[in-house]
């Protein structure tokens, strides 16, 4: 995206739609699904996480509004919000989803990308999270998911990384079979994200 076209003087991102693939094999892989496709959407909004374990994070009340509005786009959907959005419930729902929209907190760990995680509702009083390591090595087969939108802070890694987009959550999801991941490189605002995600 930062490359400039010498003939036009514009950045490539101004004139072309760009994608990032983790390998050339992914870029040329055929779509074998075929037939008429109807989305089965999983929408996760503002999981009721353990505030004592994460005192620096606040609830995201606009995230619930976000997933409700996004749900209107899909004929078939399942919403998980508040205390319902535990890791066990989400993992079970991921297996049947073709589109996933997560609106909650993500924590990126640049030193140990495998420890990056999506924060979920407390389960039996214990903090609950979906880590990159669990996604990659937990036996999750997510190849039925065509698109996963991570509407949370730094879900592609913090902007200082030399390998942003190929580490942490996004890389783990791609390796588990998710066809495409939309995420952010920076911190996002709860209320301001709603309109952007609805339009997306």
Instruction: Give the oligomeric state.
Output: single chain
The counted number of beta strands is: 8
- Low-confidence spans: pLDDT under 50, at least 5 residues? 158-166
The outline comes out as globular
Instruction: List the helices and strands in order.
Output: HHEHEHEEEEHEHEH
**Percent of residues in beta strands?**
15-25%
Give the N-terminus to C-terminus distance in angstroms.
Answer: 20 Å
Q: Please state the average pLDDT score.
A: 80
Q: Into which percent range does the helicity of residues fall?
A: 25-40%
Largest sheet: number of strands, sense, barrel closure: 5 strands, parallel
| Count of helix runs | 7
Give the C-alpha Rg: 17 Å
Strand order of the largest sheet: 2-1-3-7-8
What would you call the structural class?
alpha/beta
How would you explain this protein's 3D organization?
The chain has 200 residues and is an alpha/beta fold. 26% of the residues lie in helices and 20% in strands. The chain is built from 7 helices and 8 strands, in the order ααβαβαββββαβαβα. α3 runs parallel beside α7. The chain is globular, with a radius of gyration of 17 Å.
């Amino acid at each position: 995206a930062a490359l400039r076209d010498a003939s036009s003087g514009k950045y490539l991102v101004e004139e072309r739609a760009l994608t990032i693939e983790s390998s050339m094999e992914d870029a040329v892989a055929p779509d074998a699904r075929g037939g008429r496709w109807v989305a089965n959407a999983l929408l996760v909004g503002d999981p009721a996480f353990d505030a004592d374990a994460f005192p620096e994070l606040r609830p995201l009340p606009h995230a619930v509004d976000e997933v409700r509005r996004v749900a209107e786009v899909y004929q078939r959907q399942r919403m998980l919000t508040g205390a319902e959005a535990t890791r066990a419930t989400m993992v079970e729902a991921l297996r049947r989803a073709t589109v996933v929209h997560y609106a909650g907190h993500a924590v990126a760990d640049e030193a140990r990308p495998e420890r990056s995680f999506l924060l979920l509702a407390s389960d039996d009083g214990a903090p609950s999270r979906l880590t990159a390591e669990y996604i990659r090595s937990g036996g999750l087969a997510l190849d039925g998911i065509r698109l996963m939108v991570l509407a949370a802070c730094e879900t592609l890694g913090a902007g200082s990384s030399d390998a942003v987009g190929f580490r942490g959550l996004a890389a783990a999801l791609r390796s588990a079979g998710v066809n495409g991941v939309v995420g952010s490189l920076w911190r996002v605002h709860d209320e301001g994200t709603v309109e952007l995600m609805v339009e997306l």
